[in-house]
Task: structure prediction
Amino acid sequence: MKSGSRLAQRLIQLGVLLVILGAWYWGTLPGRINPLLLPPPAPVFRNFWVLLTTSSIWPDLFVTVREWVTAFLIAAVSGCSLGYIISRSGYAVKVFDPLLAGLYSIPAILLFPLYLLFFGLGPGSKIAIGTTIAFFPIVLNTIAGLAYVDKAYITAAKSMGANNLQMFWSVMMPAAFPIVLTGLRLGCIIAFLAILGGETISSLAGLGHRIVSLAENMESAQMFGNILFAIAMAFIINGVVSFVEARGKRGMQ
Amino acid sequence: MTDRKGPIMSPGIARLLAIIALLVLWEVMARLYADPLFLCPPSQAIAALPHIFSDPKIVNAIRVTIYEVITAFIISVAVGMTIGLAVGLQGFTKQAILPVILLLYATPQATILPLFVLSFGIGPAAKIAFGVSHGIFPVIVTTVAGVQNLRAPLLTAARSMGASKIQVFTSIVFPHMIPSFFTGMRLGMTAVLLGVLLAELYVSTAGIGFYTRLFAESFSPPDLFALIAVLATIAVTLNELCRTAERRFSRWHAS
Amino acid sequence: MSRAETVIRVEGVSQAFGAPGDPRRVVALESASLDITRGELLCLIGPSGCGKSTLLNIIGGLAAPSTGTVTIDGQPVRGPSPQKVAFVFQENTLFPWRTIIDNVKLGMAFQGVAKSERDERAFESLKAVGLADFTNHYPSQLSGGMKQRAQLARALGLQTEILLMDEPFAALDEQTRMVLGEDLSVLLARTGKTIIFVTHSLVEAVFLADRVAVLTARPGKIKKIIHVEEGHPRKSSFMTSPKLTALRNELYALLHDEIRKTMSQRGETSEGA
Result:
């Protein structure tokens, strides 16, 4: 299979994007697709620009970000702590790791109505669902990282006379770090997605709530603009978090 | 970290006891401290199950949800595999289109959920469409990965023994794709469940979403817990079916 | 070599996995006895699975024998003895998140060396193995041969009397092995350490060792001990000498049947068990 040069690839991808944009423009010319379903690109991008340059979105943005950061921090602290405790004993790992993996396979979004009942429509229910969903990759990766350190390192350190404290801080923690960091990256991103989902289903404020309100008010161009904003935010978060993870793993095999 | 020589009890039993202990703890704490408007002990949730099942409208909503999941799943797998094969087998299309697909895969789909409902209405169509929108991507990605993994030496060996293109496809490509097919199915099922349930919960005027909102707004935790437990059980069962199928049909796979 | 003093005494060491009567029971070692002289380099050689690595781990206190005892300087071995014994392993056990000089210093920290002494000792050890210019490199930035040198430096930094090496050069190409072997011989002559060296390579065993202990197929017993009368540091001319060739042939004759036996035990040959 011939692979073209990088430039050719980039050109093709640009071409595909242009085709999509072109189809969008052409499809929304007057008399074609219902502008309530798909507004033309110009007003959408105009709205997107307004969102970027004015502070209109900031209150809702702040709500979402606050929910997200809170949820992630709670999930990170509890996930790493529980993961550490479980990893101390091989038996505990055998008992609890499959249990946690099993719980992870239940679509946690089902818990959201319960959180709505318990915490109400405010940020609490969003933070709760974000924490719940982000908790699992963090705790599972912490267990995996600490409990499955390459035996070769442990043997070598033991042969050199390492005591338990040295073994933990100088061998197991650094060895586990890359895996734990991956878990934290996953948890961070999943928390954001879960909170957007919760806000969409039911909330009083936040990015998801804005989009839903605009949909209910049939403000299609603005809704699309906000959707673009939320998608852009998700990509930026993904990029930043992946970058941090890569930097954290620098220097390790 | 040392392993005991001869554990006290098997991990499976210990796990069961841990779950029972948690349920007992929940029962006791809920009875003692919980405001019955917000929380209920598990015994009351179980007691509410007959109430759930005796209401034909609720049962119908559950049935419709299952139908939506299965339909979305079938469409995701069929369309996903087709796209995956088309994209994966041809180097050119792969390099051009795969990044676009991955880009779409990474978008937070919750933000476009209102769009789906606006376009398809509040009936099953929107939920199926949203489910497909979630499920199609892991199927495409695993199919493409499965095609990529086809080791060239296997193909060369077959050709050197005189296999025709059709024989190569049926006896090498096709059996090789089976593990990734089942993996894609498993991941697709998880994604479809997420999509359909998200859409159902969003639409609070019909279906499951109506009842979750009803039970939440009328502060009836036993009914809400019971309904969610039923849905969770269905989801886990479907996931497990796919996982078991994957295990059974991938036995020859070294990894 | 004036002193023929025994520093390590291995008596009747056996190692079995699984209870007697268990059909999956594996007897890795059976009644191995060995006296190791101070300052000698002893090679353990034998077919795969003959228990040579097990024996090394037992001597170094990383594993406990099912029966028998090991004493070092008269003291029974009951666990790792970092003050007396340092290991060099086959697989890379350098910690990838630290530079090699930090790896050497960490080993000393585990052993209990005072912080003030570590920097200089670490540098000297790396210099002794020829890595003085690479002290701040990470293991991933080094070649296979350099990584093993760094492992050796870490072991040397512990300044132990005894060095246990488990196929340290197995993952390296033959040319690197030859060079490292010569360097090891020079090191031995300079420091007078006692070294036990496990290897698969016949030529390596004869080139390096004062004595070569040949183990049988599982269950491993010491079949024969061959003496190599040649002073350290071994010269590269020894590698091509008739003396080495004769000893190598003797080793081959001893090992050939054991290797065949091992492979038929595993069902790897077309001959019957």
In short: The domain at 52-248 of chain A is CATH 1.10.3720.10 (MetI-like fold). Residues 54 and 231 of chain A are 18 Å apart (CA to CA). Chain A touches chain C through 20 residues (CB under 8 Å). Residues 164-201 of chain A form the longest helix (38 residues).
